[in-house]
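Example 394.
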Amino acid sequence: MSFTDLHLALEQRRADSLYRVRRTLETAQSPAVRVDGRDYLAFCSNDYLGLANHPDVIKALQNAADHYGVGGGASHLVNGHSLPHHQLEEALAEFTGRERVLLFSTGYMANIGAVNALLGKQDAVFEDRLNHASLLDAGLLSGARFQRYLHNDTDNLSKRMAKTEARRKLVVTDGVFSMDGDVADLPAICKAARAEGAWVMVDDAHGFGCLGETGGGCVEQSGLGVDDVQVLVGTLGKGFGTAGAFVAGSDVLIETLIQYARTYIYTTSMPPAVAAATLKSLELLQRESWRRNKLDALITQFRCGCEQLGLELMDSPTPIQPIMIGESDQAMAISAQLEQQGIFISAIRPPTVPAGSARLRVTLSASHTEQQVDRLLGALESATTAIRMTSTGR
Ligand SMILES: *Cc1c(COP(=O)(O)O)cnc(C)c1O
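Predicted structure in complex with pyridoxal-5'-phosphate:
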């Protein structure tokens, strides 16, 4: 009896245009995809550099699978920590300029594990209100006093820190905000944290590979070291094109995580071949800066085009270029219009984003062409015109 309300909740979600459905991809990640039997040009992948389907990365995975097999076999602390994992940790430590790195199976788990290894009931955590769900969940789960500060607002953060008594204070922020595409004001955040003796944790899931001279993300871009950003998180399923995540920091931080991070200890290691593939994508991402340059050109092209169409963009210098729509039903309607024109972009709705800020989350990739971005702009023009006409006629 007590679960009979489940279907009512589902119906309500549908009525609110918030119902989510999965689409089945029949091809690899690439601009041209086949989804549920139809061909589309996609602008919603997080494979920003086009490495998810790169022949050298695939080859590295195949070669490592020949040697190491498929499964990780056990947790890292039992006998699942293999040579490719270890080599990847060392390469990522060098890449991030940190003493050590620890691999996690997903970014969600890295965030839950790191925050919970560092904080308990005597502590306080301060999170940007637009942080990724995994960071918010991590803070809530820790039992630390939990506060959300106004988006990228260092004054609000400082005031909250000054008013809070705690054993440890941890400031947690996305590097690049995943639904808006803007970049955290890290120099100001680090300065404010330092004044309060707080540590800073940056999750740069969307910055690694895309930002910084060698793809080192927003921390490289702003030149912040381990004394400014003590806990640096990267995920491997986005710009790196593979899967998994890492935390970079001091030797003491990493040892603490090995001892106390439950999402590290109580789970099977990622497949070793995925670590080997990531070593290859790290090498490509560092060495071949043309992908970042090409992305920058596509971003400029897209933003100029949208401006001419009168579309509302966000303040984003990154490949995440959301078009703000507002109501969920409108966002869904435009997304459906685009689909009819063979363009695949998913509408992002609450609760992923605040109520009334549904959007089309356009993402660009270095594997898109200038012509494909032009095609997107043309499709956006007709889709938004059609929707505006039906909504004013209503
Ligand atoms: C995608 C994302 C994660 C989760 O990473 P997974 O490896 O996909 O679990 C964490 N943080 C941010 C900011 C993200 O965008």
